Amino acid sequence: MDDLKTSPMRDPRRLLKRMRELMAVQENAQARLDHLTAMIAEEAGWDVCSIYLARQSNALELCATFGLKAEAVHHVRLQPGEGLVGLVARRARPLSTSNARAHPAFSYKPETGEEPFNTFVGVPILRGGRMVGVLTAQTSQERQVATDEIETLQTVAMVLAEIVASGDIVDSEEMAGLDMRQSRPERFQGGAFSGGIARGVAVLFEPHVESARLIADDPGREEERLDTAISSLRIQIDEMLDSGRIPFGGPTRDVLQAYRMFAHDRGWLERLREAVRRGLTAEAAVERVRNENRARLMKAADPTFRERLHDLEDLANRLLRHLNGGAKSSAELPDNAIIIARNIGPAELLEFDREKLKGIALEEGSAQSHAAIVAKALGIPLVGRLEGALDQTEDGDPVILDGEFGVLHIRPQVDVAETYDARIQTLSERRLAYAELRGPAVSADGVRIGLHMNAGLLIELMALDETGADGVGLFRTEFQFMVAETLPRLSAQSAVYKSVLDAAGERPVVFRTLDLGGDKVAPFAPSTKEPNPALGWRAIRMGLDRPGLLRYQLRALILAAAGRPLKVMFPMISAPWEVRAARDMLDRELRHAERAGYVMPSDVKVGIMLETPGMAWALEHAIEAVDFVAVGANDLMQYFFAADRQNSRVSDRYDVLSPAALDLLKRVRDICAEHDTPVSVCGEIASKPLEAAVLIGLGYRSLSMAAPNIGPIKKLVSGLDVEKLGIWLASRLQSPADSLRPLLLEAGEDAGLPREAVENGRGI
Fold first, then answer.
1. Which residue in 49, 63, 672, 682 is the catalytic one?
2. Which of 452, 449, 446 is nearest to 701 (CA)?
3. How far apart are CA 692 and CA 704, in angstroms?
4. Is 63 assigned a catalytic role?
5. From CA 678, how far away is CA 630, in angstroms rounded?
6. What is the pLDDT of residues 472-527, one digit of tens each?
7. pLDDT tens column, 708-737
């Protein structure tokens, strides 16, 4: 076809300028579309220009045309994939041919009168990566369609998509039923990271930045803005990677490496610049290229392409924020908002209006992330690992978030919504029943169990009275540091700790010293690149190597106690010498406070958080140096099974109810009992009814958990026969079974278990 002629293109910027002027004219929707097709045909030199828009049935309806028969408008519909127009929609990319009727996908529609026209070109009208319609152009002359002609039509289609979606065109009776939004119900299965069920409306967290300006006044200036933003983006990514201090809750190092690669990709950058040169603003150019990538990659069968889509989406968002001066979207939440995001950090989560925020759905995340911990503290359902949820959700979509079973329903059907309404009512009734259980937790055979709450925020302490908790078994002190740009002053730290003690009243509070490092990063704290941060320089290791930070915190805790008991716990102890070194540091600060004339704590107790197998086996050599022990079950089990608890591929491969794990937990409890040292268990296993029952059966008499779990565990304890369960466990700890879970569920009441523990263990 090399002998075919091509047609010279007029300046596409003039066409965009005329489109902008047309939108300022007051006329009805159909008239605007008709004028628009005539304008495109005139400016681009085509005999025919037509606009097909998608209906809810996914059919493409001819909504306006210049050059075809007028009576075909709103009467010709192409089914999904039908004809050349349907092929453009299915592939989500342009198509051109010099002989349309010879193309195998051609579908003849006599009512359009298109027989005289040979050359055909069609481009998808995309918005948010979704198919809004197809823009076509035709001419009777057989000729090649030049690349710049296709580029111009793509630019026009991008502007047209925004015009259609804004309602400036689709507001007439003829356009009724055209679908600019997704409508099909979607269901995603993920991980349940914070319990509860919420119904509400979707709010996309940091959605793409919208720009009111689509058509450039000065294309040269827009290209300068684009280049400046790209340069700033590259510098930001390089700094984040080279510093080793990746923001908590932000993208991982692997994602940032992908960002760096894409940010230097010549093809991506040239497409952005070309869109600007054709008359779009820099923001509109980013949106156009994003739409094309999204529509194409979402149709790919290979999951690696969809992963690339997420990277390109995030990169486009970052570039748009640089164009927007670095501002983040901070739109006020609607009532009953459910945040849909790729990931979120604890500081970002705390910025939302807690009266309006009802749930959080993440494409990534983990049960042990600090966002999950904060969500539990606030009593907000959180579900993670919902891959692809952002692609299928629009702002304002009705959604149901099931934090009990890790499910997200988008645009749910009526029967699904009614079922969840009944479940929400049942959960509400259970909460009221738990609220009445504010007295001590006592088992069916009269054993008193201490139930304490974990906290890290002052707002969580409101739950002390609501739940009837015996105290705060773990107060995480690092949140105050992670959300601060600089090291909090001594007075600020002391004020927070004093407020915690005031809120607790006569109930005990255990303050865990800073557990920074690994995945917990503070902007001012020393950091380093590590191949395996979970096993690296973190917690007490950092505190002993950089004593100034730890001593500063210990001094603040001593000041805050002022005449009241003080309980301090050191995390991530791996060897007995670390216990002694940390205690010596505390003793020095106590002597300093006494010399300075401070009001001293009435009593000081020192404990360790037992999180490493090495410390579990060396506990006898350190037990005399501590006043209490708290088993940090999350990390202890992670290290015991050598399975990263934040890696979804391996985190579910082990069972804490295996005989080997229970034997380790029993060993720790027995050593503490021999030395008359109080011991408790913190973490996920203490908050699950079946696991909590087993811990009590092993001899633990104190558990610490998130506040919402205290009611259910207190109910469990009231029906538990501790002696019977202890006897049952003792006879089976040497079992060759991979896990005692199925045996426990089968034994049920014969093992001393109440119905709640069995039902929970079976997922009922």
1. 682
2. 449
3. 10
4. no
5. 8
6. 999 988 876 655 545 678 888 898 899 999 999 999 999 999 886 544 444 445 55
7. 889 889 999 999 999 999 999 999 988 888
Sequential DSSP letters for 494-526: HHHHHHHHHHHTTS-EEEEPP--BTTB--TTS-
CA 24 to chain centre: 40
SS3 182: coil
pLDDT tens per residue, range 647-672:
667 767 788 999 999 999 999 999 99
pLDDT at 244 over 70: no
User: What pLDDT is attached to residue 329?
Assistant: 46
CA distance 696 to 686: 10
682 is catalytic: yes
pLDDT tens digit sequence for 249-278: 344 455 566 667 767 777 788 888 888 888
Q: Find the length of the chain.
A: 764
| Mean pLDDT lowest among 208-217, 543-552, 626-635, 636-645 | 208-217
Q: Which amino acid is at 110?
A: P
Q: Which two tokens stand for residue 287?
A: 């949106």
pLDDT-derived band at 174, boundaries 50, 70, 90: very low
Task: Give the whole-angstrom CA distance, residue 114 versus residue 105.
Answer: 15
The Cα 345–Cα 248 span in angstroms is 6
485 vs 60, 232, 482, 523, CA distance in Å? 53, 21, 8, 6
The fraction of the chain above a pLDDT of 90, given in percent, is 41
Task: Give the CA angle between residues 121, 126, 132 to the nearest 5°.
Answer: 90
Catalytic choice (208, 310, 322, 370) = 370
CA distance 478 to 389: 31
Nearest to 130 by CA among 305, 392, 363: 392
Give the whole-angstrom CA distance, residue 578 versus residue 582: 6
- Residue 317 to residue 251: CA distance in whole angstroms: 13
The arithmetic mean of pLDDT across residues 56-61, rounded, is 80
Q: CA-CA distance, 41 to 457, in Å (whole number)?
A: 63
**pTM here?**
0.59
Query: Cβ distance 359 to 198 under 8 Å?
Result: yes
* Spatial contact of 335 and 314, defined as CB atoms under 8 Å apart: no
Closest by alpha carbon to 605, among 589, 583, 627? 627
How far apart CA 312 and CA 322 sit, in angstroms, is 15
186-189, strands of its sheet edge to edge: 186-189, 407-410, 398-402, 197-204, 337-341, 357-362, 382-384, 191-194
Q: Which two tokens stand for residue 643?
A: 């399975």
CA distance linking residue 383 with residue 381, whole number of Å: 7
Torsion angle, CA of 332/338/340/346, rounded to 10 degrees? 80
User: Which tokens hold the place of 628?
Assistant: 């209490």
Q: What are the distances in angstroms from CA 667 to CA 366, 569, 608? A: 29, 21, 16
Rounded Cα gap, residues 641 and 660, in angstroms: 10
Chain segment 110-169, per-residue pLDDT in tens: 999 989 999 999 999 987 667 889 999 999 999 999 888 888 898 888 888 877 766 655
Looking at residue 165, its pLDDT comes to 66
- Indicate the burial class of 387 (C-beta count within 10 angstroms; 0-12, 13-18, 19 or more): middle
> Torsions phi, psi of 50, nearest 5?
-135, 150
Return the pLDDT at 257: 65
Torsion 168-173-175-176 (CA) sign:
positive
- Under DSSP, is residue 560 helix (H, G, I), strand (E, B) or coil? helix
Average pLDDT over residues 22-43: 83
Distance CA 501, CA 600 (A): 15
Q: What angle do CA 594, 598, 602 make, to 5 degrees?
A: 80
13 and 23 Cβ atoms separated by less than 8 Å: no
Helices (H), 174-265: 219-243, 253-263
Task: Indicate the SS3 state at residue 329.
Answer: coil
Give me the amino acid identity at 439: G
Classify residue 210 by burial, with Cβ atoms within 10 Å: 0-12, 13-18, 19+.
Answer: exposed
